[in-house]
Amino acid sequence: MTDVPPGGGRPRFRLGFLTHVQGRAGATAAYRNAQELFVVADELGFDVGWVAQHHVPLGGGGLPSPWTFLAYAAARTHRIRLATAITILPLEDPVRLAEDVSVVDTLSGGRVEIGVGSGGSELEYAAFGRDITRRRELTSEGLAVLRRALANQEVGAAGFTIQPAAHDFTDRIWQGVFSGPGARYAAQSRSNLLLNRATYGYDEPTDEVQRPWADAYLAAWDQPRAPRVGLSRFIFPAADRRTALAQIGPDVLAAAQRFAERGAFPPGIDTDEALRRFHSFYGHPEEVTEALRRERVLPVATDLIAQFNPAVVDQDAAIRALELLATEVAPALGWRPATAPDSDLAGV
User: Fold this and answer.
1) What does the alpha-carbon distance between residue 118 and residue 131 come to, in Å, rounded to a whole number?
2) Which of 83, 154, 155, 257 is deepest in the core (most CB within 10 A)?
3) Burial status of residue 134 (CB atoms within 10 A of its CB: 0-12, 13-18, 19 or more)
4) Does the predicted model carry a pTM greater than 0.90?
């Protein structure tokens, strides 16, 4: 949860980073580098480290088994929270998923959060024998079972509850959404809200499109606890704008061209338009900070989640970007690093 800084004012937001576990030298290097980012982020005071689940390889890799990865990250870190954005719920057995989540939560001392969503890859759904036309229904059904399991209620059969028993997940389940109705449904489902780094199929800037979704979520929220809004953004601070562009420009353009082939972006897209479509924040830390101050959803976000995807940046550049985020960009926006675990379960 957020807390109020000394002297009052805007509650402290949590700073996170999200990795899609990509690399140019194969899975072994990509996984090793992503684990190193968790260690670095932990030392820098980031609040949450997030991973995305992909069963079909991305350009440069991808992570099909996030909970195995996060169990290893739990052993290498001390206080950073461990989360998915997202676990593709229709492709999981929700009872088995709850067991994995509870095991990693126990091993980590209560540091786990789980973001779920429906995904959208026809190939992934076919590989797992699921009907993609039912993805919203399957997500809703799976979430209901997952929530019951993580509340230590009977699931699957009379008398069966998961082990180890889950600790309180009331405010640790997130839903990724792509519409206003989806945001209202997340609120009605008692889930925290996850907003993607970019919107597809819209010409308007991402934050203009998503702010009404966030407002719809907050208007529909009727739980006693405070609502939480996670804002994922492509943020890449560097020494200057030219240095940043050299690292991210080619990959962002290539990704935008792939999106254009699927009709999500217009054809003939160039690098500037690709960066705009991915709602990118890049350049010198002061430039990034100033741009984020104009971000329309950030004022209602409780979590700012930085990612470099669709760029696959060099490891040294990725580490430097995390350092600049934690020491220059985020503090200028009012964030301060965490110094201790925010769970009573620490040390389990």
Assistant:
1) 11
2) 83
3) middle
4) yes
